[in-house]
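Table 4 source record.
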Amino acid sequence: MNEEELIREIVALRKTLREKKDTLRRLQRDKHVVQECGLTNEEIGRYSRQILVPEIGVKGQLKLKKSSVLIVGAGGLGCPAALYLVGAGIGHIGIIDYDEVEINNLHRQLLHSEESIRVSKVVSATAALTRLNSSVNITPYKMQLDSSNALGIVKQYDVILDATDNVATRYLLNDACVLTGKPLVSGSALKFEGQLTVYNYRGPCYRCVFPTPPPPETVTNCGDGGVLGAAVGTIGVLQALEAMKIILEMSGVLAGRLLLFDGTETLFRNVKLRPKNQNCLICGDNSTIDKLIDYEEFCRAKANDKNPGLKLLKESERLSVKEYHKFADSSATSHVLIDVRSHEEFEICKLPNSINVPFTQISKPNGHALVEQVIRSMRNGDTRIDVIVICRRGNDSQKAVKILKGLINDEAVNIRDVIGGIHAWAKNVDPTFPIY
């Protein structure tokens, strides 16, 4: 290339750069120009594909822009719900969560990343959502929602999403929504399955369907039962869909119906819920609840999805991990260690000489027979034998002890459990033991 050709190329390149700079300036200027329809150029470009949907259109997009949604829980349900609500252009999103990101969250809570570990979930979620759509106003609340703060927050939003994993918060949110007149989009998921419905919107509230909470020992969360990320993500996305349908005032909102999702067979089915209960204590004709109560006391369970910390046994029926460690090291002590975790958990890790009899098996009719068989094989004649039961965090082990004590009528068999389970073992005895 000669000098003249090089000069021409430089001139052309400078001209191209000037044109690109002019285009960028024009885009920066024009994107905030509000058209006659009420949307800016940027909004028209960003949301054009959903504006073209007849049920939405420009009017629907403006409704979404002016609306607000509160998401309670920035976990497996809240992350996908928030992602699609922010993507759709909801004007204001509130996100409540008290927790920080842990590595076991990342397979399903996809707003978070490895860099977010030990960071507040609401901070991590807000950062990710802002990168997606900076025009949406996002308010993070790093707190535990309770009776002292729920009403003040809930009343600020048009639609509430229950993306939590515990019964106490479900009752709290339900009552707060009824008292403030807000629709509640409620989702849940466990293993391959999920459920979804809308309460307090042309149909029953949560208390209408469930007037009293279940016994705390019968409730399983994903931390104990496990969950597939894609399954909980499916329900979270559907929560976002129902919220938008409510805002758009569409028919077909999932009120008075419960959607059941089976991920193993990829089946969806709807069941009709009982109608609004005229005798409901919060939304009935003669309601008696006019303020929020102590929901942890009402449900006899903590208002979070962490270790519920059941207390079903006497102190004499329990051993600390250090006591068990000393007990197991004593050569003069004859005992059987029964691990009541699932087979899958037992494959992950186990204490030496433990025998796996899952709690699900023990809780079945005649399920204690296998434990009795193990005891017979370990003892000599009528000698006394200790049966120690362990689980992941010390809850199922207590339930198992109660069952076994009620069915094994032998005074020479001393049945106890290990406080805190293998989590306590890893913390207080063997720090190399895996925690999951």
